[in-house]
Specification:
- It contains 10 helices and 8 strands.
- By secondary structure, the protein is α/β, with parallel strands linked by helices.
- The chain has one domain: 3-Layer(aba) Sandwich (Rossmann fold), CATH 3.40.50.720.
- It has an 8-stranded parallel β-sheet, with helices on both faces.
Length: about 280
């Protein structure tokens, strides 16, 4: 599987997205982490926004700040995308407001740390609903509109963990493997219809992911940790350049390359040492 490298070189995203002013982006998971960074970067390019996440208050605060700084139109849509049918309800809400989505940032998702059999299955299926089902439904609903218009951009947030089996993150890593494979396949399917689909693979990032997942952070993982801004920049830059996928950060690209040289049994053992209890 081929992936584009992104070493964190500072190239202005603003210079790369064509006709950004006046477009509208839907960002899921917009109340924290990478969602905040995507919102800030796109608003700085005069892209109007729809922010979608469970918590209204942080999104309203972010929207007020970005309106003041960048003079863009922002709609806040509080919604739990892990709930069955939520993606369809979000699409209907935006259709009722006559809001056309030009850029879809499928960022919402979370992880669960721990042995699979020791995690309540309801929590695992809830995660799968958000990480896979909602992402797929949103890509379908807004991708159809984009294909009909002959233009559009979809960014899917996968993970570096998508590239190998990961004990202690078994189901989470598997959901991100789906996102990466799904996104790269859609890249080929939709490019003929003028729609760009890019999958972003972040490594360990300062987003609060560990706290939410209940995961410890090993010394090795701390060394590989990236700030969220350059990760978001690498994703939007790859999207604007029409790439199928991108791995954020030089060291994460080294890790990904090393996977090509090691057997999967060694990959499993290594990930267990780094991410295990």
């Amino acid at each position: 599987m081929q992936h584009s490298a992104d070493t964190g070189k500072q190239i202005s995203v603003v210079e790369k997205i064509d006709d950004a002013p006046g477009k509208r982006a839907l960002i899921t998971g917009a109340s924290s982490g990478l969602g905040l960074e995507f919102a800030e970067l796109l608003a700085a390019q005069k892209v109007n926004l729809v922010l979608a996440a469970r918590r209204r208050e942080p999104m309203e605060k972010l929207a007020a700040e970005l309106r003041r700084k960048h003079d863009v139109d922002i709609v806040v849509e509080p919604i739990d995308l892990a709930a069955p049918g939520a993606a369809a309800r979000l699409k209907s809400s935006l259709d009722e407001k006559s809001l056309q989505i030009d850029i879809l940032v499928n960022n919402a998702g979370y992880g669960l740390h721990g042995d699979f059999l020791e995690t309540p299955i309801e929590r695992t299926t809830d995660m799968i609903q958000l990480n896979i089902t909602a992402l797929t439904e949103l890509s379908y609903a807004f991708g159809r509109d984009m294909a009909a218009r002959g233009s559009g951009q979809i960014l899917l947030v996968a993970s570096l963990l998508a590239l190998q089996p990961v004990p202690s993150f078994a189901a989470y890593a598997a959901t991100k493997s789906y996102v990466l494979a799904f996104g790269e396949a859609l890249h080929e399917e939709l490019r003929r219809q003028g729609v760009v689909v890019t999958s972003l693979c972040p490594g360990h990032t300062e987003t609060g992911f560990d706290t939410a997942a209940g995961a410890p952070v090993s010394p090795i993982l701390r060394l590989l940790t990236m700030k969220p801004r350059p990760v978001a920049e690498s994703g939007l830059r790859a999207l604007s350049q029409g790439k199928a996928s991108v791995i954020a950060g030089f060291m994460n690209n080294v890790v990904a390359f090393s996977n090509r040289l090691t057997p999967r049994s060694m990959q499993r053992a290594t990930m267990k040492r780094i991410l295990g209890p």
